[in-house]
């Protein structure tokens, strides 16, 4: 049974991302070590938007240690992935208020709470009923309670909490946090490049959708501006057309078709300027505030004629380039070379037509390689 609709309640949870900060993400490490552990998928100082695009490109979210003051805030000895069930407008307001500290940004990805729960996500446990806490291990990367305090398999859910006047004030309950740790080595992974090379890495595999036993049916990608939304749209369209990423990780086309891109500046404007209280949640957003994540364009009736003319023009250009080279350097035929015609305009109907008729390859990182149908003049 679904809960009643409330403006402070949502069926979605959001994993928000932030700018990478070496001092926070890799505390106590020198520059060489930071470069090594940051891996090559992202620069160590990548922006929040770049982090979000990497999540989409890789197809999932990798767990982390969530350092604070040089120590992990994730208990139980394993990194976790964190999400919040704050409604969209509350999330946007919270991001703006904490933007100067660099701990929260207005970029994230949302998924249904029910599907997150099915994948193993659980609501956070705020505080304990005892102050007599003993540790089996208490290091910067691994903090494990004695099982009498909290069973180890539930410790990843624990969040320090002390809203009373005694002791240091700690209250993060407004984040309404959920957490997840990998539990199935075969299901909970995506391929990526890290300091130990390319291979499967523990992750929540969102974009595999319902493939291979995963529970996700749709996602919402959250950005701040319309321009960023268009960039994400092109990325998702390319992954839709390819059906997988460069590592061969499959992408569920049905999930992408059902998903949306949300522009937070539109949400804020709808609530603050237009007084549209329904826009506070994903459920209440109007279609005008959602961009479809894929743009599949049917080819024009004369698509074949356009392609034929383009290939004929390519042959003429190749001949002209050959003649100019021979005129400058002489007729030296001892070697050979090749070139690709490449485009990144994956939403173009002719480009999609070339892909559909096997006269183009990809997309590979948003690039489509156009295949000339026969040898060029020599």
Task: Give the helix/strand layout.
Elements lengths: L11 E6 L4 H4 L5 H8 L9 H11 L8 E2 L2 E2 L8 E4 L3 H11 L8 E6 H6 L3 E2 L1 E2 L8 E4 L4 E3 L12 E2 L17 E4 L8 E6 L2 E6 L16 E5 L2 H17 L10 H6 L1 E4 H9 L17 E2 L11 H27 L11 E3 L5 H8 L3 E5 L2 E4 L8
Parallel strand pairs: 7-10, 14-15
Antiparallel strand pairs: 1-5, 2-3, 4-11, 5-14, 6-11, 8-9, 12-13, 15-16, 17-19, 18-19
Describe this structure in words.
The protein has 378 residues and is an alpha+beta fold. It has two domains: 12-291, no CATH class; 303-370, no CATH class. The protein is 28% helix and 19% strand. It is built from ten helices and 19 strands. The protein has helices spanning 22-25, 31-38, 48-58, 88-98, 113-118, 226-242, 253-258, 264-272, 303-329, 349-356; strands spanning 12-17, 67-68, 71-72, 81-84, 107-112, 122-123, 125-126, 135-138, 143-145, 158-159, 177-180, 189-194, 197-202, 219-223, 260-263, 290-291, 341-343, 360-364, 367-370. The chain has a five-stranded mixed sheet. A three-stranded antiparallel sheet has the order 4-11-6, with no helix packed on it. A three-stranded antiparallel sheet has the order 17-19-18. Strand 18 and strand 19 form a beta hairpin. Helix 3 (48-58) packs parallel to helix 6. It is elongated. The protein starts with 11 loop residues before the first strand and ends in an 8-residue tail after the last strand.
